[in-house]
Amino acid sequence: MEKVLADALLNFYQKMLKPEFDSIKGKLAEQDERFSVVLGHLDSIYNRIGRLEDESLTMNNRLKRIEASIELGDSKRSDLDKSVKDMKVQLANLQSRIESVERQLSA
Prior knowledge:
Blueprint: H1 2-106
């Protein structure tokens, strides 16, 4: 009886369960392959995002340097403007003194 039961179970497994399990294993293998493809795409996307982040940081740093340079240029320009104004005042004072000396010489 045990032999008959074992043979019946083996027969049931081979005819009913094994084909189903083989089908399931095949589908799992297909899904694993699809997941591998998706993971490959995600890896390439993450790599691109990483490169874009690096480029963004580089561009932000360059922009900060440019802004600092512009601010420095503006401060230099304002210093230059102040110097020009001071020189104009000094020139006006000098002109006034020259006119004063000329008046004293003519008198």
